[in-house]
Automatic annotation (TrEMBL):
Keywords: Maltose metabolism. It comes from the Eukaryota. The keyword Aminoacyl-tRNA synthetase does not apply. This is Glycosyl hydrolase family 13 catalytic domain-containing protein. The lineage of its organism: Eukaryota, Fungi, Dikarya, Basidiomycota, Pucciniomycotina. GO terms for biological process: maltose catabolic process; sucrose catabolic process.
C-alpha cells in the first residue's frame, strides 16, 4: 500500500483553540468565521497545516472534549456550512486541516448516552461501562473500584434511576464509551471519522488514543495517596490488552480509505518499544504521537495534576533526544514535537523567562529549539508572539475556568484545611500559576485595541479574561511592524527550516552536552552526512561558555546562520541566546 505523501517528510501544524482564537460575531467566544478571516495570517506564517481543537456540538463541561453530536458544530462557533467553507478555504490557501477526534468518551448529553442510561434493557445500555455498586459490611454503597478520575474524585458516577455506576475517566459528564462493543466502534467510524473525511478533512489529532482499551475487569489501583479513597489509575485506564487491535481496526475501516494524517495522543506511554508498537509503519495503527514526559517535567509529579515539580535541563534534553529518535529511518516511524498546546501553559514562562527583559530572547531561543527538530511540529496559537502565562495577581476562583484547575484547586483547599497544612495551599497556588491549562486558553492577542482585538464588537465580553500583556507588545499587530519581533523570527525560522530541510526536517539529532544544566548544544546532520547544523541554546539569564563539539572543530567551513541576540561568534552565549552554525 502506498503511503500518503503530504505529511511524510514533516509538516508544521498550527493549533487553533476555537474558543479563544478570534471572535467575529461578538459573543465573547471565538468562532469559525473569525478563523476563516485569519487564514491569510496563518498562511503568512509559513505553516503547512491547521489543527482545530474541538468545535463540535457540546455542553462544554471540558471545553468541547465532551461532544454531544459528532456531526454538528457548537452553535456559537458557527454552522456546518461555515465548517465546510473553512475546510475549502484552508485548501485554497494551500493549507491542510485536521480536526480533533474525541472518541474515548462523549458528552452525557449525546443521544447514545441518553439512550444508554434510560434502562438496563435499552439496546444501547452496553455502549458504556455500567457496573453494579459494591456494598461494605455496614451496607454502605461504593463504586466498583478505587480509580481516581483524571480530573479528580471517583471515576464512577452513580445513576439513581437505573441503580448502577458508569465509568468516566475524565469528568462525570464525559462517560467512557465501551469500545469492546463492535457496534460502538462502527458508529464512531461512521459519525466521528468518515463523516468529516468525506467532506475533505485531511486528518485528525486523536484525543486520548490509548484509553480505548482498558482493564475491563476493573481491578483496584494500588494505594499511593492514603489521604483519599481515589487512586491514580492511568496504568489501568490506558494501553489495555485490545488497544492494538482497536487502533488497527479503526485504521483499516476508516482512515485507510483516505489520504489522511493521524496524530495520536499517548499519555502514560514512556517506553520506546510501546510507542513504536503504535506508530511504526509496520504497526499499521497511528502515524505519529503526541508524547507527554518532556512537557510534563515541571508538573504532574504527584497526587494533584497541577503541582509544580522541579525539573532539570539535562532531563529536558534527554527527553528531547528520546523523542527525536523516532525520526531516524531505522525505526520507520514519524516524529512529532511541540512545546505548547491547550493543555500546557506557556513555554516561555515554564522553560525560560517571561521577565520583560528576557521574554523575547526566551521565545526566540525556544523557537530555535522547536523549529530545528526533525519530523512534524505543532506550534500553538500565541506561541509565535511570545505569549506568557496569566499574571500571578489573577484570582484563581474568579478568572480560571478550566474544570481541571477548578477541581484540583478545590481538592487542594479541602486537603489543606483537613490536614491544617497552609503550605499545601501555597504550593497549590504556585503550581496553578505556573502550569494550569488556563494559561494557554486566554484570548489570542491580535492588536492593542480593546480586548486585544479578540472581540471587537461594542460591549463584547470575552469568555476568559484578556491578559494585559497585549499592551506590552505581546500582540500580532505590534509584532508585524517590528522586524526583530518574535513573530517575524518565527517566519524567518520557518523559511530556514524549509531551505535547509536536509538538516532541520530530516537530519539526525545528536546531543552534545548531556550533563550541562545551563546550555543545550546539539547537531542536526543530514542523512548523507554532508551537512551539519550546530544549534547552541542558553537556557539561563547569564552568559554561558559553549564548546564546539570536537567532531566539528577541524571543519573550517562553519558559517553563522543566525544568532537571536546578534551575538558575536566568540565562545560565549548571551542570556537566552540561540545560535545556529552551518557546516
Ligand atoms: O487530554 C488527555 C490527557 O491525558 C489530559 O488528562 C492531560 O494529561 C491533562 O489535560 C493535563 O492536565 C485530552 C485533551 O487534550 C484534554 O484537553 C481533555 O481534557 C482530555 O483529553 C479529555 O478529553
Amino acid at each position: 500500500k502506498q503511503l500518503p505523501s503530504w505529511w511524510k517528510d514533516g509538516v508544521v501544524i498550527y493549533q487553533v483553540y476555537p474558543a479563544s482564537f478570534k471572535d467575529d460575531n461578538g459573543d465573547g467566544l471565538g468562532d469559525l468565521r473569525g478563523l476563516i478571516n485569519k487564514l491569510p495570517y496563518l498562511k503568512s506564517l509559513g505553516i503547512e497545516a491547521i489543527w482545530l481543537g474541538p468545535h463540535y456540538k457540546s455542553p462544554r463541561k471540558d471545553e468541547g472534549y465532551d461532544i454531544s453530536d459528532y456531526k454538528n458544530i457548537h452553535e456559537p462557533f458557527g454552522t456546518l456550512e461555515e465548517c465546510q467553507e473553512l475546510i475549502d478555504k484552508a485548501h485554497s490557501h494551500g493549507l491542510k486541516i485536521l480536526f480533533d477526534l474525541v472518541i474515548n468518551h462523549c458528552s452525557d448529553q449525546h443521544e447514545w448516552f441518553r439512550e444508554s442510561r434510560k434502562d438496563k434493557s435499552n439496546p444501547k445500555r452496553d455502549w458504556f461501562y455500567w457496573r453494579p455498586a459494591k456494598y461494605d459490611a455496614d451496607g454502605v454503597r461504593h463504586p466498583p473500584n478505587n480509580w481516581r478520575s483524571v480530573f479528580g474524585g471517583s471515576a464512577w458516577e452513580w445513576d439513581e434511576a437505573t441503580e448502577e455506576y458508569y465509568l468516566h475517566c475524565f469528568v462525570k459528564e464525559q462517560p467512557d464509551m465501551n469500545w469492546e462493543n463492535p457496534e460502538v466502534r462502527q458508529a464512531i467510524y461512521r459519525d466521528a471519522i468518515c463523516f468529516w473525511l468525506d467532506r475533505g478533512l485531511d486528518g485528525f489529532r486523536i484525543d486520548t488514543a490509548n484509553f480505548y482499551s482498558k482493564h475491563v475487569d476493573f481491578p483496584d489501583a494500588p494505594v499511593v495517596a492514603p489521604n483519599t479513597p481515589w487512586q491514580p489509575a492511568a496504568d489501568y485506564m490506558t494501553n489495555g490488552p485490545r488497544l492494538h487491535e482497536f487502533l488497527r481496526e479503526m485504521r483499516k475501516e476508516a482512515f485507510d480509505h483516505y489520504d489522511c494524517f493521524t496524530i495520536g495522543e499517548l499519555p502514560h506511554t514512556p517506553r520506546l518499544e510501546d510507542i513504536l508498537s503504535y506508530i511504526s509503519v509496520e504497526a499499521e495503527a497511528l502515524n505519529c504521537t503526541i508524547l507527554f514526559d518532556q512537557m510534563d517535567l515541571d508538573h504532574k509529579g504527584g497526587q494533584y495534576p497541577l503541582m509544580r515539580t522541579s525539573w532539570k535541563l539535562s532531563e529536558f534534553k534527554r527527553l528531547a533526544a528520546f523523542a527525536q529518535q523516532l525520526a531516524e529511518p531505522k525505526y520507520n516511524a514519524h516524529a512529532l514535537s511541540y512545546m505548547e498546546n491547550h493543555d500546557q501553559a506557556r513555554s516561555v514562562t515554564r522553560f525560560a523567562s517571561d521577565a520583560p527583559e528576557h521574554r523575547v530572547a526566551s521565545a526566540k531561543m525556544l523557537a530555535t529549539y522547536l523549529l530545528s527538530l526533525s519530523g512534524s511540529l505543532i506550534v500553538y496559537q500565541g506561541q509565535e508572539i511570545n505569549t506568557i502565562n496569566a499574571p500571578k495577581d489573577w484570582d484563581i476562583d474568579a478568572e480560571y475556568k478550566d474544570v481541571c484547575t477548578i477541581n484540583t484547586w478545590r481538592e487542594i483547599k479541602e486537603d489543606a484545611e483537613k490536614n491544617s497544612d497552609p503550605s499545601l495551599l501555597e504550593r497549590g497556588r504556585e503550581g496553578i500559576q505556573l502550569t494550569a491549562r488556563d494559561h494557554s486558553r486566554t484570548p489570542m492577542q491580535w492588536d492593542s485595541s480593546h480586548n486585544a482585538g479578540f472581540s471587537t464588537k461594542e460591549g463584547a465580553k470575552p469568555w476568559m479574561r484578556v491578559m494585559e500583556s497585549y499592551k506590552e507588545g505581546i500582540n500580532v499587530a505590534a509584532q508585524e511592524d517590528d522586524p526583530e519581533s518574535t513573530l517575524n523570527f518565527y517566519r524567518r525560522m520557518l523559511a530556514l527550516r524549509k531551505e535547509h530541510k536536509d538538516v532541520f526536517v530530516l537530519g539526525k539529532f545528536d546531543l552534545h552536552d548531556k550533563e550541562n544544566e545551563q546550555t543545550m548544544i546539539y547537531t542536526k546532520t543530514s542523512q548523507d552526512g554532508s551537512r551539519v547544523a550546530l544549534v547552541a541554546l542558553n537556557f539561563t539569564s547569564e552568559p554561558q561558555a559553549f564548546d564546539v563539539p570536537s567532531s566539528l572543530k577541524d571543519k573550517s567551513t562553519g558559517k553563522l546562520l543566525f544568532s537571536t541576540v546578534g551575538g558575536k561568534s566568540d565562545g560565549k552565549l548571551e542570556a537566552y541566546e540561540a545560535r545556529v552554525i552551518l557546516y
